[in-house]
Amino acid sequence: MGAALKNTVISATGELGVSYDQIKKWVNANGGQWSPKVMKGVTHLISSKEHYKKKVDSVNTAEEIGARIVSYDWLEDSLQKKRKLAEKKYEWKKLGHDRRIRKGIKRMAPNADTKRFNDGCAMARADMESDNYHIFLDETGFEYNISLLRKNLRHNKFARYNIRLFESNTKPHVYCTFIRYVPLGA
């Protein structure tokens, strides 16, 4: 008999893909206690996404008593690792927040990519007087626009080197390097 769920009182709500009887057996066999309904003393509520979103009575009660509302994955992963895992990344509150952030990034990414491309084209126009180039980005998103600074400590002045790699807008791509030196104090 394991002790992976020692000091936990667990209840469940919603369609989880396994029966509540099976969850009860796993919880009891691993040192936890099963509660058929959410009440004071319950430490964890395993909830389906649908029940969490609808804020059914058991979810509201769990929130009121301060129980952790987690996905079924928390139980499954805890049993596989043979220890109670930290609940934070399995809590529906956190999962919903992470999903909203990913959606926002996905929605903003095309605009950010367009802005980076347009900024790279503007640099090519300024540096090479050409509309056919942009700053090269590799597959990791690294922008080949590098500035190096050299400081003269005695006079507290900087010299700057700008090194840029441009890629043509047409295919097959042609590459061009641009280097600018700005002397000390200029």
From TrEMBL:
Domain of life where this protein originates: Eukaryota
Coiled coil: none
Gene3D superfamilies to which the protein is assigned, alphabetical: BRCT domain
Entry-linked SMART domains: BRCT
Pfam families for this protein: BRCT_2
Protein name as annotated: BRCT domain-containing protein
Ranges for domain BRCT: 1-92
Lineage of producing organism: Eukaryota, Fungi, Dikarya, Ascomycota, Pezizomycotina
